[in-house]
Write a structure and sequence with these properties.
The complex is a heterodimer of chains A (about 140) and B (about 325). Chain A is of the alpha+beta class and about 140 residues long. Chain A has helices spanning about 10-20, 25-30; strands at about 40, 50, 55-60, 70-75, 80, 85-90, 95-100, 105-115, 120-130. Chain A has 2 helices and 9 strands. Chain B is mainly alpha-helical. Chain B has one domain (about 5-310). In chain B, about 45% of the residues are buried. Classes of the chains: A alpha+beta (about 140), B mainly alpha (about 325). The interface of A and B includes residues 28, 65, 116 and 119 of A.
């Protein structure tokens, strides 16, 4: 399943969104979640890159159920970005790949994802990355 | 739970509780039937107690079906986007059932419940084959939560954790389920059964014989549950402090406290209640009925907490990197 859109607005998504708002929520999260969760991504959360990625790659803590996994990308101050059908190689550590349909311009982007693992528990999350304008210095924040 | 308690959360808990209660009582119905045979109750013609146990097993297995529908509904709700139509939901449900591990287990779970209900219904006529089929279905039904729960998603020693999970559910069925069915087919129903009125002392001695046969089953089940519960806690809790620092740990503490109360009630019924069953005048049976009812009610409360627990996220190791 693929999707494009901006705001997470399902009950699960809203709860997840609430969780990520504010430092306290992020600290509490250390104690509260060990269902499927995002371990790392390319581009990484809060990273600044100079080259626009051709795809967003997500590594999860468990093998996600690709058929019901959703990845959405949106530009801050802009609309949703089209994402091609998700793919994932067979390996246990293979990432979910969300190919982008076109090149991304410089700006701040939000990736929102929703997935589930073998236990059926639905997890959601979001993170941001920045594509720096050409000629500027890039680096992690 | 973070994010506040929603109606969907409560409905999901209710669905899981009905499922767990249905499985527990299904296992208990089969275990009760075996106990009735062990204490020398005639197998042919099938006595009323065995028929009532089969009826309870049938309704318990049947109750798993609406509970399964509720669980599927809440799963689809969590995966659906707002504004989707019913046809979108149906399509999503189809995707979940046909393309996910959880959905495959759900289909098997429902199929076993249907066959189990039919087997218990047939067992009411006294068919030994039907009782065997019902027993196989009850055990299979008890195994399904392990294939679609926390145990199925652990990263290491999955086979051990899943085996422990199956034994844990079977232990609950053999203990609380059997006691529930035993009480239903004797203490709660026979005082109202026409043609079943006997001298209280004789009836009390009859029930005492059943309870004496049940006691080793309860003790063994309690031991199995303690060991398998420890395995689950060791797997799901990254450190001891998570017991009071995480929601999952605190719910587990509540469950352990309730289990301790069930153990205390069981010990009282075994050591104090059973000897009093043969007291003159039938007062011992009435007191035993009350104390057994308390033990069963506490056991059902344990299932309520378990229904909450299995839907909760487990504590995350402190070294785990944050996703957000």
């Amino acid at each position: 399943m693929i999707g494009v859109g901006a705001a997470p607005s399902t009950p699960a998504a809203r709860r997840a969104s609430d969780r990520v708002s504010g430092t306290r929520a992020r600290q509490l999260q250390l104690h509260l979640h060990r269902h499927l969760h995002l371990e790392r991504s390319e581009p990484a959360a809060n990273d600044t890159v100079t080259a626009a990625p051709a795809a967003v790659r997500l590594w999860f803590s468990e093998q996600p159920e690709l058929a019901v996994t959703t990845v959405r990308l949106s530009a801050t101050g802009g609309g949703p970005i089209a994402v091609a059908p998700l793919t994932r190689d067979a390996g246990a550590d293979a990432p979910v790949v969300a190919p982008l349909r076109g090149p991304l311009a410089a700006g701040v982007y939000t990736v929102w994802w929703r997935s589930t693992a073998r236990d059926g528990h639905v997890s959601t999350g979001q993170f941001q990355f920045v594509i720096a304008p050409p000629g500027s210095k890039a680096g992690a924040k | 739970m973070d994010g506040g308690l929603s109606t969907a959360d409560v409905v999901a808990w209710l669905g899981r509780w009905v499922m767990l209660a249905g499985i527990t009582i299904s296992v208990g119905a089969v275990s009760c039937r075996l106990l009735l045979g062990m204490v020398g109750q005639p197998l042919e013609p099938l006595p009323d107690r065995a028929r009532r146990a089969a009826s309870l097993g049938m309704w318990a297995s049947f109750a798993v079906l609406p509970a399964a529908l509720v669980r599927l509904g809440t799963e689809v709700m969590d995966l659906a986007d707002p504004g989707q139509t019913w046809s979108d939901w149906v399509h999503l449900a189809g995707t979940v059932l046909s393309h996910t591990h959880w959905g495959l287990v759900w289909v098997v779970h429902v199929a076993i419940a249907v066959v189990g209900s039919a087997a218990f219904a047939r067992a009411r006529t006294g068919s030994h084959r039907a009782w065997t089929a019902a027993g196989v279905c009850a055990v299979a039904l008890a195994a399904t939560p392990a294939f679609a729960g926390h145990a199925a998603a652990v990263e290491h020693h999955r086979a051990i954790v899943m085996t422990a999970d199956v034994l844990h559910v079977l232990g609950a069925g053999a203990w609380i389920g059997t006691l529930c069915v035993l009480a239903s087919v004797t203490l709660w129903s026979e005082p109202r059964s026409p043609g079943r009125r006997r001298a209280p002392e004789e009836w009390g001695a009859d029930i005492a014989g059943l309870i004496r046969a049940f006691s080793p089953v309860a003790l063994t089940s309690a031991a199995v549950m303690a060991v398998t519960g420890s395995v689950a806690a060791w797997t799901h809790l990254d450190r001891v402090a998570s017991l009071w620092q995480s929601g999952y740990g605190r719910a587990l503490l509540v469950k352990l406290a309730l289990v301790a109360l069930v153990l205390a009630a069981g010990a009282y019924n075994w050591q104090r209640g059973t000897p009093g069953l043969t007291a003159p005048g039938g007062g011992g049976v009435r007191a035993f009925t009350r104390s057994v009812s308390v033990e069963i009610a506490l056991g059902m409360l344990v299932l309520v907490v378990t229904a909450v627990l299995v839907g909760m996220p487990m504590p995350m190791p402190m070294t785990m990197p944050m996703a957000h």
